[in-house]
Amino acid sequence: MKRLSWDQRKSLSEFSNTVAAAWFTAGVISPLFTKAKSLEEVAVFLFSGLFMTGVMLRLSLLFLERK
Fold it and tell me: Using only C-alpha atoms, what is the Rg of the chain?
């Protein structure tokens, strides 16, 4: 398999950052503006949003590691 160039890895990193921002918006910010059915639902949204944001940011950093 061909190795990715620096520019390709940088593009993938930027894309991962954008996806992380989307997860943060969906999981953390949107519950502030919507009617939640229960406190449990809010907790699930917050946890999943923060977890997936962390995963995508870590993936972004992995793309930028020098190999």
Answer: 15
| Of the candidates 64, 52, 65, 57, the residue with the CA atom closest to the CA atom of residue 11 | 64
Query: 65: how many CB neighbours lie within 10 A of its CB?
Result: 8
The pTM assigned to this predicted structure is: 0.84
pLDDT in tens, 33-67: 888 789 898 899 999 999 999 999 999 999 998 76
In this prediction, residue 46 carries a pLDDT of 92
Q: DSSP class of residue 37?
A: S
Q: Where are the domains of the chain?
A: 7-64
Neighbour count for residue 23 (Cβ, 10 Å): 20
Q: 50 φ, ψ to 5°?
A: -70, -40
